[in-house]
Amino acid sequence: MAASSDASSAEQLLKTPLYDLHVELGARMVPFAGYSMPVQYPAGLMAEHRHTRDAAGLFDISHMGQLRLVGADAAAAFETLMPVDVIDLPAGKQRYGLLLNDEGGILDDLMFFNEGHGSIFVIVNGACKVADIAHIQQKIGERCEVQPLPDHALLALQGPQAATVLARLSPGIERFVFMTGGAVQIGGIPAFATRSGYTGEDGFEISVAGQNADALARLLLAQPEVKPVGLGARNSLRLEAGLCLYGNDIDTTTTPVEASLNWAIQKVRRTGGTREGGFPGAAKVLAQLAAATAGAAGHTDHDTLKRRRVGLVALERIPVRDGTVLQSFEGHDIGFVTSGLLGPTADRPIAMGYVATAFSEPGTRVQAIVRGKPVPMEVSTLPFVPTRYYRG
């Protein structure tokens, strides 16, 4: 869950509370989601990627939007905007969600956490946050209180040593398991942490008052296991984990089923579930789910479900970038790449993209047209690198 970059001029760019720290650390700053953000530090993208895989990387993701939905009806109201189960999410747990438009297109992907006592904490993508908050307010603002948190920062500590680091500074935090969290004190700094992240590694996302963000970041960076990591390595890590980047891999032209995010739609919201439908675009999304289910049994309805998001591996050592056309070996256009690079850990060219449903089975061969020349690729299962979430 991330937001694609925009073309804002330097004069218009916003700064996170950690901007001065990034500059002090020698980061190369770039425009991203309306902010000036660190794409990499002097060590470079490859070193940052590998350090996150081996130890603990600290990411500034304060460009993302944070808000609370408060009120006895908040969960039921929020559920009307998404094809996921909000009502039954237990207190203390987090879930991935998808805001949809009336055509079933994805307005944004997000994370939400049940704080209990009628309070839901939500994190949305930076480039979408203004529109998201306005959309939520307009749709359910009469049923619950929508409280944006613009003065909060968000940090992510990711990697196999992240729990060791935080347990040293916040004893007990290591008891959280994947997609759980709560209020904590980290080195005496009040914060809200969840055991989650967008790298495929174990780790934590930490919401903190903006005025305390610099002190918290410096405290974490003072730990021997931790180094700063920029958006470049965050992108390579999330792609190896098979995770979508909003604006590249999913957007308003893609539905959850086309995006192969069926797992994010709980049974209770599907056809035959006790709270079937009732979300924007439900007729289309549920029809596509039925087609996908039939496809798993060998009877795919290609008219209802025309394309799917898939993983792709190049069979030659040639990176295949986003926007690249995909063809059948007969030369017919069948799709396009949405994200692609040479995976530092996978050690091969990897990509995600959309292909016609008939070409979406793992093992299917296709070709990418790179600078006018065909590069053979094979549809792959996701993730490209096994995830290491801590589930207890």
Automatic annotation (TrEMBL):
InterPro entries: GcvT (IPR006223), GcvT/YgfZ/DmdA (IPR028896), GcvT/YgfZ_C (IPR029043), GcvT_C (IPR013977), GCVT_N (IPR006222), TrmE/GcvT-like (IPR027266)
Stated name of the protein: aminomethyltransferase
Catalytic activity reported: N(6)-[(R)-S(8)-aminomethyldihydrolipoyl]-L-lysyl-[protein] + (6S)-5,6,7,8-tetrahydrofolate = N(6)-[(R)-dihydrolipoyl]-L-lysyl-[protein] + (6R)-5,10-methylene-5,6,7,8-tetrahydrofolate + NH4(+)
Methyltransferase recorded as keyword: yes
Annotated positions binding substrate: 205
GO biological process, one term: methylation
Superkingdom of origin: Bacteria
All residue ranges annotated as the Aminomethyltransferase C-terminal domain in the record: 307-385
Gene: gcvT
Family: Belongs to the GcvT family.
Enzyme class name: transferase
Keyword entries, A-Z: Aminotransferase, Methyltransferase, Transferase
Entry GO MF terms: aminomethyltransferase activity; methyltransferase activity; transaminase activity
SUPFAM superfamilies named among the record's database cross-references: Aminomethyltransferase beta-barrel domain, Folate-binding domain
Cellular-component GO terms for this entry: glycine cleavage complex
EC number: 2.1.2.10
GCVT N-terminal domain segment(s): 18-267
